[in-house]
Specification:
Layout: H1 2-33, H2 37-43, H3 48-61, H4 67-82, H5 86-100, H6 106-122
Length: 137
């Protein structure tokens, strides 16, 4: 009987350890997947590299072009977008456009909106375009 009790105690301890490990794995995985878009946007410094790229595009349309600098800026923007979850990329770009570039008017605004909508595609990311998230109003 004493051997049975000891064996049962060991079995219960092993089950407890296995359950705790499984729980910790599930919680860690879920935490990474469920980081809010706001947290991801903060971690990616509110897509400041994408903002720089878009501002540079405004200047390029005004006649000032530097393709090497533009390409570097685009790559840095893509890095930030790549580090965000797929579901948050367009929301982040939408917030960037409305809060940081909302002052633009007319043709300049339309051009920047088109560039911003297409940024995930330029970065070979999914979704390829952010048409429904980035609106012109």
């Amino acid at each position: 009987m004493a051997k049975f009790t000891a064996l049962a105690a060991i079995l219960v301890a092993l089950l407890f350890i296995a359950h705790t490990t499984a729980y910790r794995t599930i919680v860690t995985t879920t935490d990474k997947q469920s980081r809010s878009c706001r947290e991801q946007l903060q971690q990616q410094q509110y897509l400041n590299e994408c903002e720089r790229f878009l501002r540079q595009q405004c200047q390029s349309q005004s006649g000032r072009r530097d393709s090497t600098s533009e390409q570097q800026q685009l790559e840095q923007c893509c890095d930030q977008l790549r580090d965000m979850s797929r579901r948050c990329r367009c929301d982040g770009l939408s917030e960037l456009v409305s809060e940081q570039l909302g002052h633009l008017q007319g043709e300049e605004r339309r051009e920047i909106l088109q560039i911003a909508r297409n940024l995930p595609n330029e970065c070979n990311l999914r979704p390829g375009r952010c048409d429904s998230e980035i609106r012109s109003n």
